[in-house]
Amino acid sequence: MPKDYYIQPDASDPVLGAEQVLDYVRRHAPEAKAVTSVDETGGEARTYAIDNHLIFKTQRPQQLRPRTSLKKEVFFLQRLGGVEGVNVPKVIGYGHLEPLIEYTLMTRMPGVAFRNAQLTGETRREALKALGHMLHRVHSIPQTPLRESGLFFGDQSPVDVRWRMGSIFDDVAEMIKNEGKAWNYPLSPESIGRRVMATLPDTQEIVALHSNPGPEHTFVDPATGQLTGIIDFGDAYFSHPVNDLRRYRAPEDRRAVLAGYLESGPVSDDFMGVWRVGCAITDIVAIAFSQEHQPAAKAELNQILEEIG
Fold first, then answer.
1. By three-state DSSP, how is residue 144 classified?
2. DSSP code of 17?
3. d(CA 254, CA 250)
4. Which stretches of the chain are DSSP H helices?
5. SS3 assignment for 157-213
6. Banded pLDDT at 291 (limits 50, 70, 90)
7. If you compute the radius of gyration of the chain from its CA atoms, what whole number of angstroms results?
8. Scanning 93, 131, 198, 283, which has its CA 20 to 30 A from the CA of 249?
9. pLDDT tens-digit profile of 178-193?
């Protein structure tokens, strides 16, 4: 995969003062009263909570890169607004009035990130199935306006999908080596990648994806475990839907997301062929980086390799 490059790496990255933030916010929400917190956990963006129900999101200037775009996120969110079964932040305002200040004002997603909810058992499974339902609806919106916007990068053909999936295998193998992670599976990541990629079907199923609707971007009600929505569409791109569905390292979690996706509509045999490749990628990541998921990931990978012969 192409490596990220940052357009203005030496730009200053100050935390904006409360009055400056409120000045921008009040152009769209005159009733805004206070900045209640600042979240620094985002890589390319910083968010300011406004009165605990709005989010003022700024592009961090030194982290500006081609594949991330607040303008793209706004465009995507506006097309998802009002789609039945899809809950995403509502855009209140957007601006790029100063060279180093680009912002979005949107509603705050209720609940907490899935990774912080500590859901288990059937409650966890139902939340992930609901995510699968929602992702199916996200992938099913009209694609022409998204393509014609000129804001999205990504795949345009089966060749592009094949190149992307193969490159992910190579990137993961390189990351395991560079970070010195122990590898205790009989086959090397490179060997697994070559064997699995040989089974990847040519596919025309290419849609605009969230990019990473994983545990940090999926929100749930901490009391009930019910899905509340998905946030952060700034890295959206075109590719096969499986690249949204493979984001959970535990095979059981991924199967729950897929179950919800399939309940929302049938998929092709080729789709399931791509799914198998996506699961193999995530299993390799889990074996190397998530000790708690190693046994289940190894078992799933064994099954995949047995199926393809």
1. helix
2. P
3. 6
4. 18-25, 70-80, 121-139, 144-148, 158-178, 189-197, 242-245, 251-263, 269-289, 294-308
5. CHHHHHHHHHHHHHHHHHHHHHCCCCCCCCCCHHHHHHHHHCCCCCCCCCEEECCCC
6. very high
7. 20
8. 198
9. 999 999 999 999 999 9
CB 247 within 8 A of CB 213: yes
Neighbours of 281 (CB within 10 A): 22
CA distance 30 to 68: 29
What is the amino acid identity at position 96?
Answer: H
- 230, 218 contact by CB (below 8 A): yes
- How far, CA to CA in Å, does 231 sit from each of 129, 140, 219, 258, 283? 17, 18, 8, 20, 25
pTM to 2 decimal places: 0.95
pLDDT in tens, 38-97: 998 878 899 999 998 999 999 987 787 888 999 999 999 999 999 999 999 999 999 998
Tokens read off for 50: 């406004």
Taking the CA of residue 278 as centre, how many other CA atoms within 13 Å lie in the half-sphere pointing to its CB?
24
Rounded CA-CA distance 309/305 in Å is 6
- Distance CA(202)–CA(198), nearest Å, equals 11
Strand-pairing partners, residue 113, are 219
Tokens of 60: 């961090």
Query: Which residues are registered as beta bridge partners of 176?
Result: none
d(CA 33, CA 93): 17
Q: What are the DSSP calls for 257-273, one per residue? A: HHHHHHHTS---HHHHH
Phi, psi for 161 (deg, rounded to 5) = -65, -45
Placement of tokens 């080596």 in the chain: 177
Tell me, rounded to whole angstroms, the distance of Cα 12 from its chain centroid.
Answer: 27
